[in-house]
Amino acid sequence: MNRTLLLRLKGPMQSWGDSSRFNLRATSATPTKSGVIGLVAAAQGRPRSARIDDLAALQFAVRVDQPGTLLHDYQTAERWQTGGRTALVSRYYLADAVFIAAVSSEDEHVLETMEEALRSPRFPLFLGRRSCPANVDLVIGIVEGDAETALRSLPWQASGTHRATRSRQVSLPIFRDAKDGEPGVEQRDVPISFDQQHRQYGWRTVVAAEPLMLDNPDGRVDDPFFEAVVSA
After folding, report:
1. Which of 24, 57, 127, 166 is most buried per CB count within 10 Å?
2. Antiparallel, parallel or unpaired: β 69-77 and 200-215
3. CA distance linking residue 36 with residue 16, whole number of Å
């Protein structure tokens, strides 16, 4: 039977790069598999050159509890030692977002080892980039069921302020690894190597599962169109 480790990813800023190029550092709208696996690998104290195929093979899913706001930050970098020209870099972040990441395995010992490491990490933990430290209540715990089932059983984790801006019935998107032969969207975020000299990523198929529908007694609006836009 599968069991699942649930992680709460929230903070002032997150950034989950999946298509960054040159001076444009974008962020995905949801946590990437490579970002969450990197979080686990850092907690376990694995060097960037270490093998991570065992972690990459685990089933992964994510639920969007609070989509956050896209933040665009301009930064400059200058090689002052050599008098080089100033470079302009655009970095994107998600502000005030809350996601639930689920990592599933049939081997409970594997998940218990991960949970222990995340509660007492060897290296600092970040939500995608080093400027985005992980929250202290990162670990929710291990529950029964596969990744999607576990996400459907967990109560909504959004802040009270956010709940008040949503409809009286909310839709929480869920994205998961596809099963064999299942159609979906191809995404290149499976880590093969985190080595800074030769980073490598593979492809996976991502399925948008049926959203989780929940009643929201704190909601102040009753507009299905508004809710569809907010939860997208």
Report:
1. 127
2. unpaired
3. 9
SS3 label, residue 201: strand
What φ, ψ does residue 92 adopt, rounded to 5°?
-115, 140
Residue 37: both structure tokens together? 């696996």
Alpha carbon distance 67, 64 (integer Å):
6
Nearest alpha-carbon partner for 149 in 126, 127, 180, 176: 176
Separation of alpha carbons 180 and 188, rounded Å: 17
**What number of other Cβ atoms are within 10 A of residue 15's Cβ?**
24
Handedness of CA 150, 158, 186, 126 (dihedral sign): negative
Encoded tokens for 189? 């975020």
Pairing mode, strands 24-25 and 87-105: parallel
Which parts of 61-202 fold into alpha helices (H)?
A: 108-119, 147-153, 160-165
Domain ranges of the chain: 3-231
The tokens of 88 are what? 């302009």
Q: What pTM, to 2 d.p., does this model score? A: 0.91
Tell me: domain 3-231, CATH 3.20.20.60, correct?
no
